[in-house]
Model the fold of this input.
Amino acid sequence: MKKILSFLFLTPFLFSCGNKDNKSIDPSMETTIEIQPITDEVLESAVIYEANIRQYSPEGTFEAFTKDIPQLKELGVKIIWVMPIFPISEVKRKAFGDLMIEDIEDLEERKKYLGSYYAVSDFKAINPEFGDLNDFRKLLQTAHDNDMYVILDWVPNHTGWDHKWIFEHPDYYTKNAQGEITDPLNEDGTPVGWQDVADLNYENMEMQEEMINDMMYWVKEEGIDGFRCDMAGMVPTSFWKKAIPRLRAEKDIFMLAESDYPELTDNNLFEMLYGWEVHHIFNAIAKGEKDVSSFDGYMTHRYQKWKQQDIIMNFVTNHDENSWAGSVKERMGPAADAITALTYCMPGMPLIYSGQEYNLEKRLKFFEKDSIPKEKRSAWELLSKLGELKNNSKGMWGGKDAASYERLNTTDDTKILAFRRKKDGKELVYIANLSGKEVEFNINLEGAFTNAMTDGVFNIKEPGTQKFAPWEYVILTK
Done:
């Protein structure tokens, strides 16, 4: 059954929470959007896209991104994760390194530093850098019109230093022995390194209620489809046990945790967690620091650590990795395509980060305006094909009812990764040389297959001798 969601204009009181620089909201705007609630079956074949609105276009606006939403269907995208859309604190705003904008004397120079998206000054307002609430509503409507869901990046662990709670409810925050509000600290009391944000105190039940109410606003009043929760593991699990059921009582929503803590999926809390462990294995294999045995070890203990129905988000890049660790090309070089294909073929849900589809080869600035390329080249072709396969092949299902996973033995299992997945009579085989050297090997597999990337015939005859170039891979269907 489809749900019909009506967006009603907000009262002047709610608008007073917004930034005064926002364009005025059209009080006559009433949008009716019809879309099926997100289901477990949708998650089986979904691709998730991380939208960095600031850097997605030269304009850096909702409007510029919204224009491109229809073509994301070519990439198989079903869920759009929008990085934080909220106003950014101007107090202790980061510039570069350890410098805050207050440390820069030149006032014109200060203006180019836009701050971290994760230093939120108001959870119920729109960052005027991106547009206004009407612009966001158009983004949401366009996504829904194209059968895509939108989840907001939520920042529950901390706020910026000029959030109204700092002044109205200082008891909402963690304090040191001198009674001063602190930035987030490690367990030993040392700073985490996020001086531009103030740490929230989850022992304060009133603050928890305020946080839930702010999340509820976006679900109930604006009809968003879920949340990606920043540093979810730094927030007590008891809070999620209270908050998520209340949100789901209002609407079926999708919850993604920036964490790999298994307890966060207990009792239907978060559906999906980050695949940080396997991501680091990908990087190490690409650099020649590890081999396929590390991936095999991960897959062996995967279901010992997480439950069968837990969904893991697989990725080769995201906003953190790109800006701080390096571009895909920088970290993975010639291994990039084979590992990208692996994130689609293995159990889980693949992520595309803004610019990845356009062969982004640089680190995007984090605190300043930057922009991604917009020329469709090899990455667009690759991700389009992989997205089509992910959407349409049950052998690629990766959610709560995922296709089976069977490791296929070869004569060189430290360099050759081969596995078969099956679901409802559909079969998929991934074979890759995950090394920088040519490998000749035999594989415990025979038959006639379709090469899913070329649509050609791929025959494997007993004893199945193959020769793969460095980083060569195939995806076979039958």
